[in-house]
Design goal:
Blueprint: E1 8-12, H1 15-21, E2 28-32, H2 45-62, E3 69-73, E4 76-78, E5 81-83, H3 85-95, E6 99-107, E7 121-128, E8 143-144, H4 158-171, E9 176-180, H5 186-193, E10 197-202, H6 205-213, E11 215-219, E12 222-226
Parallel strand pairs: 1-10, 2-3, 2-9, 6-8, 9-10
Antiparallel strand pairs: 3-7, 4-5, 6-7, 11-12
Helix pairs in contact: 2-3, 4-5
């Protein structure tokens, strides 16, 4: 597997406007890691919840029927309230007629250790309108003990990216992965490594530039990110 066999396009644009205007080709799947309330200065919690669900609905509705929508999200705690992002996404999946194919947990810190502002794990959820996972021999762990190295604090960990890219390559008909809110491009770099074309959308020019050049290389210790 090498990046030379795959293509990558990164748009420096508002992800929601891009999605609303885009015509999505068959053979595409999505991954989204939507921003949480800390990235919206002064936004009330209920307004952010509405924004989050509307964005999840947009991603799900834009996904081709045979494609999959993967969401990588960490819950938050706000004024003593636990905000379950998986629940918010699942509501929109039901609304768009998308079945849940799996719900995995990936540990952000070592199991058994307490965290405070944010839970110690992230959700990885997968939905599709028509694709189904019927071959139980291809099942993968539901709890992933290590998130892996990250290129930045809010980035996806290497182990998470690798699991998702391998799943898309081996268990779906995905040819192109579309990643709104792609950040520094960890997931699209891993998609390229696994031979998938990738489209990233990132509002920050600095992060979009990083997403265009980030690569995945194989070393003695395993895979790693390189810019």
């Amino acid at each position: 597997m090498t990046e030379e066999k795959s293509q990558r396009i990164v748009y420096c644009d508002d992800a929601i406007e891009w999605l609303k205007n885009a015509t999505i080709a068959e053979g595409s799947s999505f991954i989204a890691s939507m921003p949480d309330i800390s990235e919206f200065t002064g936004m009330p919690l209920e307004k952010w919840k509405d924004w989050f669900m509307e964005t999840a609905e947009l991603v799900l509705s834009k996904t081709p029927d045979e494609g999959v929508s993967v969401f990588y999200q960490s819950d938050i705690k706000v004024d003593g309230e636990w905000i379950d992002k998986a629940y918010l996404i699942q509501k929109m999946a039901e609304k768009t007629g998308s079945a849940q194919l799996f719900h995995k947990i990936i540990c952000r810190v070592k199991p058994g250790y307490a965290t405070f502002g944010r839970p110690a794990y992230s959700h990885i959820l997968c939905f599709s309108k028509k694709h189904r996972l019927r071959d139980l021999r291809l099942s993968t762990p539901d709890v992933i003990p290590d998130i892996g190295d990250k290129t930045w604090e809010r980035g996806m960990g290497l182990e998470a990216c690798m699991m998702i890219a391998k799943f898309l390559k081996e268990q779906t008909g995905t040819k192109t992965l579309i990643h709104p809110f792609c950040g520094q491009g960890s997931m699209i770099a891993m998609a390229n490594y696994y031979g998938l074309n990738a489209i990233g959308i990132e509002r920050s020019p600095k992060r979009a530039d990083m997403a265009r050049i980030l690569t995945v290389v194989k070393e003695e210790k395993g895979l790693s990110f390189h810019s």
